Amino acid sequence: MTENGRRGGFLRDLFAVLPDGRLPRSRYALCLIVWAAALAASAMAASWLLSRGGPAWAAAGAAAVSGWFALTASVRRLHDIGRSGWWVIAAAALLPLGLLVLLSMEGKPGENRWGENPKGLLRIDDERLLERLARESRPGSAMDEILSGKGAAGPQGAGSQNQGECNGKDS
User: Which residues form a coiled coil (predicted)?
Assistant: First the structure.
């Protein structure tokens, strides 16, 4: 379970009806592969149905469903990199380049306006996080020592000048 009580997992990402939340690169790539295969299958089904005089609406409906789920996955991926879902229009206009950008950009660390990082990565310099850690750490615990400046963070503590070094800027 995630912190907000929702169960994570690939099926939840694959069948997300609403484009809310965030989607990491690896899950986005898997979703695109599945929905591209579904779209190709619906195109073959449409061709087969039309050649036999069948209704085209069935295949068109399957294509619309596949397209909707691919769209919601793209919007959630944009949320992960810190962009509004409206950027999906630009990504669609520049389809190959837009997909390359969405697949290559790292998600924003920590929480953004669309939710927590799906990878669980947090920024050390996030004041709300530091305050929460200070409130919830037990006296004498390793976290208490780090926050008070006696532990691995050094004499300055995790909440002062050491933030940039712990933030992963060197990697």
Answer: none
